[in-house]
Amino acid sequence: MAGIVGAMRRRPSEVDPATVDGLLEIAAGPERDLAFPVHRLAAQARVRPEELAAAIAAGIPPTAQFRRVGADGAYVNFQVDPVELVRATLDLALGRGERYGHFAPTGESVCVEHTSANPTGPFHIGRVRNAIIGDSLARALRAAGPGVTTQYYVDDMGRQSAMITWLWSRPPERWPEPVRAAVAGQGSADEKPDRRRGRPYPALSAQLKSDPATAESVAELVRRIEQGDPPPEHEAVAREVLGGMLASLGRLAITFDEFVWESQFVRDGSVARILERLRAAPHAAQEENGAWSIVATQYGLPKESDRVVVQRKDGTSLYVTRDLAYHLAKFSRFERVIDVLGQDHQLHARTLEALLAELGEPRRPTFVLYQDLTSPEGGRMSTRGGSAVWLDDLLDEARERARREVLQRRDDLGPAEVEAISEAVATGAIRYHVVRVAPEKPVKFRWEEALSFEGRSGPFVQYAYARASSVLRKGDAARPPYPFEPALLVGGEELALARVVSRLPRTVAYVARSAHVHALAGYAHELADQFNRFYHAVPVLAGGEARESRLALVAAVRQALGNALRLLGIAPLESM
RNA sequence: GGGCGCGUAGCCUAGCCUGGAUAGGGCACCGGGUUCCUAACCCGGCGGUCGAGGGUUCAAAUCCCUCCGCGCCCGCCA
After folding, report:
1. Residue A4: which pLDDT band, with cuts at 50, 70 and 90?
2. What is the pLDDT of residues A303-331, one digit of tens each?
3. Is the pLDDT confidence value at A555 over 70?
4. Residue A550: pLDDT above 70?
């Protein structure tokens, strides 16, 4: 690369080297690895682009690294020596093994907050996008070098958590009749706690609209909780429900390093200290009734939202104030803070930024905003509207469909193997389906699409991995360190495959930089796709003198596929 | 009304940050492929005013402006 830039710099000597660097592009194509469009230089030099391209190409001799340098229309194309490309790629992929595509630790500390769903019932798929994007991003960041800590922010301060506590701090006989009726005869003794505890929640939510007495009772409980005097059931029930939700997420291989309870910032006095600082802040203003707010127009907030109330008239804190305390705590421990948020929190994110500025904190979180899943009819996936789909139910349905697929093509597996493969295929399909789309794109949830096992899907990638594994198993002499002769691997399908393998590190770096985790899903599909083409076109085990070298290529592909799948939180399968 | 996001074939989607060579994939549909390493696969075909209009540029899906459509948000809720 450096040699090329040097050569380009020498050619039209009056050209600014930075211009050359900026124009040189990585161009995928069978005959080119780097391309240089000469249009701009041609315009400056007032010559025809084709002539200039030919002149430049003629002036650059092939080197050891770049076998071919040629003019193609208005482009100068460079092709990396295929033998060198194959040698370097396989050396790296096989040598680094599970660390292929991973970078050395940078020492940077990053906090990724994601999911943070309120523990008021089972985890529903309206929130699953947050969890999958957040978990995949954390994995990619870790691979790129920073030290990553994932955090789940647990809301135990608001009305929603108070409602669950209200229900379970009294016997069901004392629930309003409609709430009791709504759950009567449902559930079983052995069901998950999130489902059991969460069942009356929608009914209570509806009841509060028409039942002032119950509403006041819940409001009273909210005040008790805010004053630091919650009933004993408060934390216990929240933990129970949260445990059930985490079990669901665990099926998707989603776990968290730390759980941060919102109430801790009230208890430890940090909210009080921050309120003190806010009241003394440059744009603080006290309302007539005693509440405090910050006038935040100069921070670019929409005019209607420029007065950010940070303290109620009764002196208590608000969600945004506690979140501010949380973020200041994060910044005291981590150099970078990333929040995965639904885009309905966009204004909240801007408000948080304004308050951080108001308190003189120079750093800002990086917000990864995603569009919430919508129901097929077009509305939001909501618990109350009855359009909610529990994550467990989605995963169970996916597993059943996967099981049918497995049984249809395999009769040599025991029940445990069928079960394991079905679960891995099901969760792989769901994770891939969610992560493959750019977060900002709106997505309608459709069962048939979410459960697809073909084409651009998780199982497609898993299948390619299983095939590669199978070939390696059958090439019984094949085992590390996989000796190979790169000159035997420069056929069209083989070279194309090596090229894709070589792109994994670049892709990981891009994902960590841009937070575009869907690029990793795209990469995994491309690699599986190219492997399938190779697989059909090129015999490996019957490869004659190329057999050992091809096995090495397959081993490198398997490594890259496996690493990419693990970064996506999808289980690589030796067999399926 | 204001703010943010999205708009690419019947459906879904990549590319947009950092403008360049015939806009990549997938589903569906049509036609092929299994005495051979797993057919959850492969090969071929069909299908595109990149929402509309204007601007910048040698060059626009990509940058700028206007408009249209869809979603979300605009609480002393979280």
Report:
1. very low
2. 878 899 999 998 899 999 999 999 999 99
3. yes
4. yes
Q: Is the ipTM of this complex over 0.90?
A: yes
CA to C1' distance (Å), from A390 to B54: 48
- Report the C-alpha gap between A39 and A9 in whole angstroms: 16
Dist CA A312 CA A314 (whole Å): 5
Question: Measured CA to C1', what is the nucleotide nearest A466?
Answer: B38
- Token readout for A206 is 């509806």
pTM of the predicted model as reported, rounded to 2 decimal places: 0.94
In Å, what is the separation between the CA of A442 and the C1' of B8? 15
Residue entry with tokens 């006095």: A269
Separation between Cα atoms, residue A183 and residue A170, nearest integer Å: 15
Nearest nucleotide to the CA of A521, by C1', is B14
Q: Which positions on chain B have an atom < 7 Å from some protein CB?
A: 1-7, 12-15, 17-18, 20-22, 24-28, 33, 36-43, 58-59, 70-78
Task: Look up residue A60 and give its amino acid.
Answer: I
Tell me the CA distances in angstroms from A246 to A112, A131, A252, A501, one per residue in order: 17, 11, 10, 34
The CB density around residue A58, as the number of other CB atoms within 10 Å, is: 13
pLDDT in tens, A370-417: 998 888 776 777 655 556 889 999 999 999 999 999 999 999 999 999
Å between CA of A373 and C1' of B69: 20
A188: number of Cβ within 10 Å: 7
**Protein CA A398 to sugar C1' B26 (Å):** 19
Q: Domains of chain A, with CATH numbers?
A: 2-80 (3.30.1360.70), 81-260+381-576 (1.10.730.10)
Residue among A325, A309, A320 at smallest CA distance from A345:
A320
Gyration radius of chain A's alpha carbons: 29
Name the percent of chain A lying above pLDDT 70: 94
Protein residue closest to B7, using CA and C1': A441
Nearest nt to the CA of A519 via C1' is B14
The answer to whether the bond into A200 is cis (omega within 30° of 0) is: no
Q: How many residues does chain A have?
A: 576
**Sequence-ordered list of residues with C-beta below 8 angstroms from that of A175, at least 6 positions apart, any chain:** A167, A200, A204
CA of residue A340 to C1' of nucleotide B27, angstroms: 30
Q: Which nucleotide is nearest to A309 (CA to C1')?
A: B76
- A229 CA to B73 C1' in angstroms comes to 33
Residue A288, CA: closest nucleotide via C1'?
Answer: B76
Give φ, ψ of A542 to 5 degrees.
Answer: -100, 35
